[in-house]
Design a protein that fits this description.
Elements lengths: L2 H17 L6 H4 L5 H17 L4 E7 L3 H7 L5 E6 L3 E3 L3 E2 L8 E10 L10 H6 L1 E11 L10 H6 L4 E6 L15 E6 L2 E7 L7 H13 L10 E6 L4 E2 L5 E6 L3 E7 L1
Parallel strand pairs: 1-10, 3-7, 4-13
Antiparallel strand pairs: 1-2, 5-6, 5-10, 5-11, 6-7, 8-9, 8-12, 12-13
Length: 260
């Protein structure tokens, strides 16, 4: 796929983000698009966001749980970039009309204290480089109409990232079993999803290691101070204005968000 088309598609996705509009799937319009092409489109979309004054504060890993894979029909993980304008804190209100077709995911966020760069990064090295872990929400959102996505569509669309919400405590990862910890996600006071840490590629630290090694092949590193969202632990939950959500992960803490 030539550079002009890459830039055109990245610009289309950026404008869809700004105008809160949806696009027809890229894979329908350009069936020749590869995953490598899609990451180049993502880079263009992110470059437009940085030109507008945003700054990168972390990375996200998407499509790590079988529940989400089955919901989307996408069967391999991907990654996207997190910027400062995507960040909300515990209990803050998110304007529902600032998003297009949002869905909430309960996740474990890693806050790094050391740089990590592949190849060869292990789960043990991830834990050694981690300042702490937090319960978080990722509010995924797609600029692709009706979430009709293939892997290339979600990759190009910054791994379908909308915004994210960090929880109320930072916990030393050595003080909790990240693989067996249980997650409960409540919507308007009712339990709508449950899961465990192992849903994220068998272990959340495995997911972060995968990201470090995948980025390393592109000569990109994870940096000290960055936040890494390690992937959903259960199904995605659609949200609208008026919804109140809370996710709790055993040994780590909780995170709440409301939509107005």
């Amino acid at each position: 796929m030539d550079r002009n088309l890459i830039e055109q598609l990245g610009d289309e996705l950026y404008q869809a983000l700004v105008k809160r509009e949806v696009l027809a799937p890229l894979t329908e319009r350009h069936p020749e698009i590869t995953i490598a092409d899609a990451y180049r489109v993502q880079q263009r979309m992110i470059a437009r966001r940085l030109e507008a004054g945003e700054r990168i504060v972390g990375k996200k890993i998407g499509v790590t749980s079988k529940a989400v894979m089955n919901m989307l029909g996408v069967f391999q993980p991907d990654f996207g970039m997190l910027t400062d304008r995507m960040l909300y804190n515990e209990g803050e209100a998110i304007p529902a009309d600032s998003l297009i077709q949002p869905k909430a995911e309960g996740e474990i966020a890693f806050v790094l204290k050391k740089d990590l760069k592949g190849p060869g990064v292990t789960a043990a090295e991830v834990l050694a480089a981690t300042e702490g872990v937090m319960t978080c929400f990722e509010i995924v959102d797609s600029r692709i109409r009706d979430w009709k996505i293939r892997i290339q569509d979600t990759v190009a669309d910054n791994a379908s990232c909308g915004v994210f919400v960090l929880g109320d405590s930072l916990v030393d990862p050595r003080r909790v079993d990240l693989n067996t910890c249980g997650m409960v996600l409540e919507k308007n006071g009712e339990i709508v999803a449950t899961g465990s840490g192992a849903a994220a590629l068998g272990a959340p630290a495995n997911a972060v290691a995968w990201l470090a090694n995948t980025l390393g092949a592109l000569d990109i590193g994870l940096k000290a101070g960055e936040v890494v969202l390690s992937g959903s632990l259960a199904i995605m939950v659609p949200v609208v204005a008026g919804d109140n959500l809370r996710v709790t992960i055993g040994g780590i803490g909780g995170c709440s968000v409301r939509f107005v």
